[in-house]
Amino acid sequence: MALGIRKNDTVTIISGRDKGKRGRVLIVDKIKGTIVVENCNFVKRHTRAIPQKNIKGGILEKEAPMPISKVKLFCPECQNPTSVKAKFEEGKKFRSCKKCGTILTAKGA
User: Fold this and answer.
1) What is the CATH number of the domain that holds 41?
2) How far apart are CA 82 and CA 30, in angstroms?
3) Range of the domain at 85
4) What are phi and psi of 51, to 5 degrees?
5) How many domains does the structure of the chain reveal?
6) CA 100, CA 73: separation in Å to the nearest integer?
7) Number of Cβ within a 10 Å radius of residue 63
8) 30 vs 44: CA distance, rounded Å
9) What average pLDDT does the segment 18-25 reach?
10) In angstroms, how far is the first alpha carbon of the chain from the final one?
């Protein structure tokens, strides 16, 4: 996952119950190989009230981590989910769309 998906990228979910949804990446965990996508993969958590921390009890809905293999990067140029390939120009490394060849972002940007 050297080039793969980074925080704030727009991704499309390609499998699972949220298949076809598009969202922004909030968290990337390289060690576990999971990501959290905004407004996707909601789960319900039962929580106990903690008055000292102003936490209300009840059933909360929040985004859960999902495997990176279940998402693909969304290319704004060709409007399709795509894989990423490395492209070298002028001694710099870029991420580019495998389908249309558009440069997505510079490495480190």
Assistant:
1) 2.30.30.30
2) 20
3) 10-45+59-106
4) -60, -30
5) 1
6) 13
7) 17
8) 25
9) 94
10) 17
Cα–Cα distance, 99 to 109 (Å, whole number)? 22
Model confidence over 81-91: pLDDT tens digits?
Answer: 988 888 888 88
pTM equals: 0.79
**Strand ranges inside 2-109, DSSP E:** 10-13, 22-29, 34-37, 42-47, 58-63, 66-67, 71-75, 80-82, 84-89, 92-97, 103-106
Name the burial class of residue 87, with classes exposed (0-12), middle (13-18) and buried (19+) by CB atoms within 10 angstroms of its CB: middle
- The one-letter amino acid code at 28 reads V
Is 3 among the domain residues? no
Cβ atoms within 10 Å of 91's Cβ, excluding its own: 5
Amino acid identity of residue 65, one-letter, is: P
